[in-house]
């Protein structure tokens, strides 16, 4: 059995992170058909794309109009096209709000205990971008957690616990201290890394290089 370690730093409200994660999944699905002996050890790590977002959220279209002086729909075209390239249905007009994401990251961290953090991460992207949910709401997070085998009551308490939130913030700070300033950010086999939602071809090329590295 060969183990490929993958660390993925991302944020739930980042559309490029959604695209990058989706592309990674597509590459891994094909890779595991070719190499069924592989075991993927994929772990997600927190990043705040919009630190300081108020609890009630920030209206994204209004923020973009104010910041760039143009209609957000024009800026979204490139994102939508990139998503479509990998057969991902994404319509940024569905979700008008950006919410604080530390509670969502804390849910994903809880999911590590039972090996469902990646499934939860994907569910968080869907809840936010497709279903326009408030992914800072403990009730929303409890529902997502329960759908992946976690106790809803425990999830609600865990993502509201200031000590747990502090641990999540500290993890995000550690990655920033390691030089991660933009997301998505991928690390393969703890040695090869790249930033951005690269193409599936590039992702596969980097994975192949990582698998060819000599074992420690």
Overall structural domain count:
1
Number of helical elements: 9
User: What is the third-level CATH name, the topology?
Assistant: Glutaredoxin
Roughly what percent helix? 40-55%
Main beta sheet: 4 strands, mixed
CATH architecture group name: 3-Layer(aba) Sandwich
Number of strands: 6
Taking all Cα atoms into account, the compactness measure Rg is 17 Å
End-to-end gap: 15 Å
Unreliable residue stretches: none
Q: Can you identify the CATH class? A: Alpha Beta
* Largest sheet: spatial strand order: 2-1-5-6
SS class:
alpha+beta
Percentage of residues in DSSP E strands: 5-15%
List descriptors.
single chain, 216 residues, alpha+beta, Glutaredoxin, 4-stranded mixed beta sheet, two-stranded antiparallel sheet, 14% strand, globular
How is this structure best described in words?
This protein is of the alpha+beta class. It has a single domain (2-212), classed as Glutaredoxin (3-Layer(aba) Sandwich), CATH 3.40.30.10. It is 52% helix and 14% strand. The protein has 9 helices and 6 strands. The strands form 2 sheets. A 4-stranded mixed β-sheet has the order 2-1-5-6. It is globular.
